[in-house]
Amino acid sequence: MQKLTMKPIKLHKNFIKKRDKLVNSNTLSIEKINETLDLFLEDPKNHKLRVHKIKCRIDKHRYSVTVLNTQYRILYSSYKEVNLLVYIASHDEYQRLNKNC
Q1: Residue 88: is it exposed, middle or buried by C-beta count within 10 angstroms (0-12/13-18/19+)?
Q2: Global pTM?
Q3: Is 71 helix (H, G, I), strand (E, B) or coil?
Q4: What is the mean pLDDT of residues 89-94?
């Protein structure tokens, strides 16, 4: 069986800003984020990531992945050549961001 090749990821400035804020406040560890992204790159369909498409009129390419063993979600847009990590949010913030999408 051929291994699935994952598209490269790019980090949006909003993702970087929020990630750094969460890490600097000791709310979320950089290790957990990196562990999640490593698994995502290795096996994007791994059930631990709980990847799912988000119905959104604004961004028809929007998906969500769960940061392993946390309540945090990474929102990303999947385009032909790249996955753009757009934002990282707690579950409550994630719900608000996607409510009127």
Answers
A1: buried
A2: 0.87
A3: coil
A4: 92
